[in-house]
Amino acid sequence: MGKLGGSSLNDATRQYAVEGTPPSTRWEAAWSIRHTHHPATIHFARPGRTIPISLTGRACALQCAHCNGVYLRHMRTVNELPDAMQRASSFLVSGGCDAQGRVPVLSHLDKLARVQETHRLNWHVGMIDEDTIRRLAPHADVVSFDVVGSRDTTRRIYGLDLSLDDYMATLDALARHVRVVPHITIGLDAGEIIGERDAVRALAQRQIKRLVFIVLIPTAGTELAGCQPPSPEQVADFFLWTRSALPRCELYLGCMRPRGDYRRRLDAFAVRAGLNGIVNPSPTARDLAIELGLEPIWSDECCALS
Question: Which single residue of 7, 29, 65, 129 has CA 20 to 30 Å from 170?
Fold first, then answer.
């Protein structure tokens, strides 16, 4: 691990510092927490061996403001599983939601159970009930579960009347039966960071082992297409706060985040803020991790499966 407060960490801080970046003492505190509670390794993933499958094709009842079904268009269908199995070692099983925010995970469960004999499955389930969880659990290697900390955000973006307590009740039900990895979308509310800290506080009470962050991507064909994501500096500030709030938790930066210079800057911030893993890391982040004394560990599957 790079020496705390040494030239390597300070040089990296100066290299990427811009107006609004949190002060160096906060970077040092985050680095110290990482050094105390985590090994001197960093997990990098290029998840080419995990193929996303939509259980509903392009159909989604919610048509959320940030997605509008756009991301379903790039997923394989259940009918394409035989061909996809030749190219994958695992699948992200997802799909559109019904009017209550539930993915119909039981619709092809028999077929997916056979797939699991040779491939690992990461399920995205939405607001699932416990009876359905019991049926799904034997066929899930892990469940990825989105958590939203603001009821107003859930209403505006998803069109659902769900509180943070509702999300936590579902998370708790999942945790009773299957390994679950919470996800938080930073800036989900049209680029504003509103309920994300509340979500982290609720997760801290549950001593979760891993948390994945993704960042709003303003996407053509959606209501939020004209929005701006939170700045890399704002996201970095949230990373630093979360590293302190969840010192023992593995923090990952997932695949969904803006590209280009935004990603280059954000990925560097993620390394310096003490995150444990990055999906599709920028070259800058890869070089910086080595400079700071971290040993890269590479994976070709979804970060929730590692």
Answer: 65
pLDDT of amino acid 15: 46
Q: Long-range contacts of range 82-89, CB-CB < 8 Å, 24 or more positions apart?
A: 84/51, 84/53, 85/115, 85/118, 85/119, 87/49, 87/51, 88/49, 88/50, 88/51, 88/119, 89/49, 89/50, 89/119, 89/120, 89/300, 89/301
CA-to-CA distance for 62 and 97, rounded, in angstroms?
Answer: 6
Q: Which residues contact 153 (CB under 8 A, 6 or more apart)?
A: 188, 189, 194, 195
Torsion of CA 227, 275, 262, 60, to 10 degrees: -40
Amino acid at residue number 156? R
> 0.90 cut: is pTM over it?
yes
Q: How many CB atoms lie within 10 A of CB 251?
A: 20
Sheet holding 210-215, edge to edge: 76-77, 50-54, 90-94, 120-124, 142-146, 180-186, 210-215, 250-253, 277-279, 41-45, 295-299
pLDDT of residue 2: 39
The parts of the chain modelled with pLDDT lower than 70 are 1-22
Contact at 8 Å (CB) between 90 and 305?
Answer: yes
Do residues 136 and 106 touch, judged by C-beta distance below 8 A?
yes
Closest residue by Cα to residue 51 from 69, 71, 76: 76
Strand partners, 189: 192
| Residues 249, 225: Cα–Cα separation, whole Å | 33
Q: pLDDT tens, 54-65?
A: 999 999 999 999
CATH superfamily of 7-305: Aldolase class I (3.20.20.70)
Q: Which two tokens stand for residue 294?
A: 């971290």
In a 13 Å sphere around the CA of 80, the CA atoms on its Cβ side amount to 16
